[in-house]
Amino acid sequence: MKKNIEVRYNVLSDSLFKLIKEKLESEDFPWYFLKNSAYPDNKELVKQRYLNYSFYHLVLNNKNITSNYFDVTNAISLVLKDSFKLKTSYDLFRLRWGMTTSLNMTYKNTPHTDMLTPHKVILFYLSKSDGKTYFYDKEHNIIDSILPKENSAILFDGLIRHSSSKPVEFARRIVLNINLKETV
């Protein structure tokens, strides 16, 4: 499947990367608890929900700004959009920082899509982590995975089921999730 996933490394300038890394890894950054990081569409996975928690910081939702961190996050998203050479017809729909923390065991979060309508997803990995991003077929079989690398990003079709996973060797995994819709 890697042919359907585009990867970029060292995507942000050193100064922008340092700025956002310091902000998000500080004790002052406002993270919010989410008891279920993705809503399961598989009844067996519902039983595991208590492990599916994460933390988030919503910056833009339905094109509405929801955070004081919009300017810096938007700057990052525009750099990433240019890096992947997305047409100007792709508009930012949602910007969401996500953080999963270690359970000291391997755990994959629920396979999901961010929206039910056609869209693109860019995931920006703030730091190196062993919490992979997994990709699934319709039967929830893993068909690919990406290991987060510091200051890297991936682009994929948002209708492909995917999930985050909890890091084991690292304390946390921080990712910017960018959802883009093509305007007509």
Brief descriptors of the model:
alpha+beta; 16% helix; 184 residues; three-stranded antiparallel beta sheet
Describe this structure in words.
With 184 residues, this protein is α+β, with helices and mostly antiparallel strands. The protein has a single domain, classed as Sandwich (Jelly Rolls), CATH 2.60.120. The protein has 3 helices and 13 strands, in the order βαβαββαβββββββββ. The strands form 3 sheets. Strands 1, 2, 3, 4, 5, 7, 10 and 13 form an 8-stranded antiparallel β-sheet that branches. Strands 9-8-11 form a 3-stranded antiparallel β-sheet, with no helix packed on it. Strands 6-12 form a two-stranded antiparallel ribbon. The longest helix has 14 residues, at 70-83. The protein starts with 5 loop residues before the first strand and ends with a strand.
